[in-house]
Amino acid sequence: MKRILIIDDSPTEVFRFKEILVKHGYDVLEASNGADGVTLATAEMPDLILMDVVMPGVNGFQATRQITRTEQTKDIPVVIVSTKNQETDRVWGKRQGAKDYLTKPVEEDALIRVIEANLV
Known about the structure:
InterPro entries: Bact_response_regulator (IPR050595), CheY-like_superfamily (IPR011006), Sig_transdc_resp-reg_receiver (IPR001789). The chain is α/β, with parallel strands linked by helices and 120 residues long. It has one domain: Response regulator (Rossmann fold, 3-Layer(aba) Sandwich). Helix content is 44%, strand content 19%.
């Protein structure tokens, strides 16, 4: 069973994503901020990460950069899922190493499609 790490500081978003992912047969790990997410990604080596951007402390762009530029975790695909919907945000997210970028609110079908396309 594939494991997906959700890094998001919104309990509501985490609950919603977890509900969708479990329904589609994924195991779910959770972190409520970027720093904990980086630590958990290194410890657990999930198959994919869903990353929020706006979080206290280490934001999603910084956490994505750390994960995708560290030897141990660089092969874990990161999909940014954020309310930030400007083209510059998308470009910046991809420059940090994100494989894809979705804007909240995300439709279930779109989320699963992107996850399946990015799972290695």
